[in-house]
Design goal:
The chain has 541 residues and is of the alpha+beta class. It has 4 domains: 112 residues, Rossmann fold (3-Layer(aba) Sandwich), CATH 3.40.50; 151 residues, 2-Layer Sandwich (Beta-Lactamase); 60 residues; 134 residues, Histidine kinase-like ATPase, C-terminal domain (Heat Shock Protein 90, 2-Layer Sandwich), CATH 3.30.565. 38% of the residues lie in helices and 22% in strands. A hairpin with a 2-residue loop joins strand 11 and strand 12. The protein is elongated. The termini are far apart. Its EC number is 2.7.13.3.
């Protein structure tokens, strides 16, 4: 069934009405002396539709059909063009047109061909401007514009509607990027509805690749829709989609029969790409022929990229939640199933302490304590990682001393150099950082090692700190690996320095390792304010 094509003429300038009427007569060669329906061919040689004038004096209403003013939704047909005098455009609220009129060109008739007249018309929303015409209607430039407007195969989104669509897509960026996991479906479908309504589409479907079958994940349609899963080969030009190219209905080659693909008359297929992989296809469709502007297709690609990024981020969140759950289960096993037998062994060792020779007791006791330390490190790494709690100005020397006392270090010495002062940090995590550095020094330098903690100064300002020892140092070929979890050159767990790196990263600090008569760990506080220095102190265990 062919719907009536409507040309709306705004204003009360009879010369504009007469000019449009004469042009329509020439299009079909059917004379008519009134503004009653004029026959024309609507883009097909087999259909005879009706072109109708709809004259509008004055205002425009978006209310019901029986309200004051003009409501295009009350018309029985499709609005294909809006014509108005150039000096009356400012009185027409084009920005309040419903989406039914957004896909139609606004043609302005100027009284003169001055640049000022044309510029003013374009500024007020005209898509094209026509000056006075004194020749025949066959030669009137308005004729070609109206013919193109009523050609159903030449429908396109006008510039004013493309700009409106651009605003919708920009708003979608904020909406989608701020979506929580439980809001994804709602916000995607709400975005699809806004885009579909703004661009005068019939439906939008987001397909996601699930084991080679593309399943509809999200959809919006002007009419009820239940899209089915599709094989990738069922999409038009799948080889182009596989190369991450857009496929526009006008680009589909007829030589291979692509034009016979079942579906709507006009569509845009945009690949959904994540991490350089095709993870889905977004389909934009209309049931009538349409020419897709490059700017419009670019906006659809932007929308697809936003959706792909949001889905990838949501998937990453899901993986992180699962990882956190596995780490919590691991922590429970470590905390209970490993500590319980160790506690039993430690108890029996204490009972047998008087019966064992020191050379037998000490290695066993050291092994148990080493296991306790390993469990503590594993729990810390699993439960906290690089998470940092509340920070506050803390005295670095006091934290280092406290950490030193918690590490059993017979004959080892700690020297804290003047100048450290206070630093903004999480006290418990800073203490863990020192504890692991001190244990590392003892593991590699022996029980008589000397450890020094001091400030790093640049241009008279404290920019960080260092922790150094007089042990054997770190070979140059392994310095880049010392912060990797599980790496060790002393037979230890290899977790302690990984924790040091995590704590530093959590505070926004950088840490580097060097060797100069021993191991040196250098921290930079990334511009954090360091308060005035403390006194030098030397501690022996």
């Amino acid at each position: 069934m062919c719907r009536r094509a409507i040309i709306i003429v705004f204003g009360n300038d009879r010369s504009v009405t007469h000019r449009v009427h004469e042009v329509l007569e020439t299009l079909e060669g059917v004379p008519s002396s009134s503004v009653e329906p004029v026959p024309f061919t609507g883009g097909s040689t087999t259909e005879r539709c009706q072109a109708t004038f709809q004259e509008v004096d004055g205002g425009f209403s978006t209310g019901a059909a029986d309200s004051d003013g003009f409501d295009p939704r009350a018309l029985d047909g499709d609005v294909f063009a809006v014509v108005a005098p150039a000096d009356s455009l400012d009185d027409i609220p084009l920005d309040r047109f419903p989406h039914e009129l957004h896909a139609t060109p606004t043609l302005a008739i100027a009284r003169s061909r001055t640049p000022e007249r044309y510029r003013e018309a374009f500024l007020h929303g005209a898509d094209d401007v026509f000056g006075p015409h004194t020749g025949s209607a066959d030669e009137d430039p308005l004729r070609e514009a109206l013919r193109n407007a009523m050609d159903r195969t030449n429908r396109r989104l006008p510039p004013i509607a493309v700009e409106s669509l651009r605003t919708v897509v920009l708003d979608a960026a904020t909406t989608l990027m701020g979506a929580e996991t439980d809001e994804v479906a709602t916000k995607v479908e709400w975005t699809l509805e806004n885009v579909g309504t703004s661009a005068d589409l019939d439906r939008i479907v987001v397909y996601r690749d699930v084991d080679g079958m593309f399943n509809p994940a999200f959809a919006w349609a002007a009419e009820p829709l239940r899209p089915d899963p599709r094989a990738f080969e069922s999409f038009p030009s799948p080889e182009r989609l596989a190369r991450f190219e857009n496929v526009v209905s006008g680009d589909i080659s007829t030589e291979k029969g692509d034009s016979d693909v079942d579906g709507p008359l006009s569509s845009v297929h945009v690949p959904l790409v994540s991490e350089w992989e095709l993870v889905g296809v977004v389909v934009f469709e209309v049931e009538t022929p349409r020419t897709w502007a490059d700017a419009e297709v670019d906006l659809y690609r932007t929308l697809a990229d936003l959706i792909a990024h949001m889905l990838a981020r949501n998937e990453r969140r899901r993986e992180l939640r699962q990882q956190a759950e596995r780490l919590e289960q691991f922590s429970t096993v470590v905390s209970h199933d490993l500590r319980n037998p160790l506690n039993v062994m430690a108890g029996y060792l204490d009972l047998a302490a008087d019966d064992l020779a020191p050379e037998h007791y000490r290695p066993t006791d050291d092994a148990l304590r080493r296991m306790e330390t390993l469990i503590d490190d594993l729990l810390m790494l699993a439960r906290r990682g690089d998470a940092i709690g509340e920070t506050e100005p803390v005295p670095v020397r006091a934290i280092a001393e406290d950490a030193w006392h918690s590490v059993r270090t017979p004959r080892a010495t700690l020297a804290v150099v003047e100048g450290l002062g206070h630093i903004e940090a999480d006290p418990s995590r800073l203490r863990q950082l020192f504890e692991n550095l001190f244990r590392n020094s003892i593991d590699h330098g022996g029980h008589g090692v000397t450890v020094e903690v001091g400030p790093r100064v640049s241009d008279g300002q404290v920019i960080g700190m260092y922790v150094a020892d007089d042990g054997p140092g770190i070979p140059s070929d392994v310095r880049e690996s010392v912060f990797e979890s599980g790496f060790s050159t002393a037979g230890s767990s290899g977790i302690g320095l990984a924790i040091v790196a995590r704590v530093a990263e959590g505070h926004g600090w950088t840490v580097e390792v060097d060797s100069d008569g021993g191991a040196i760990f250098e921290f930079e506080f990334a511009g954090r304010e360091v308060r005035p220095p403390a006194d030098r102190a030397v501690h022996e265990a």
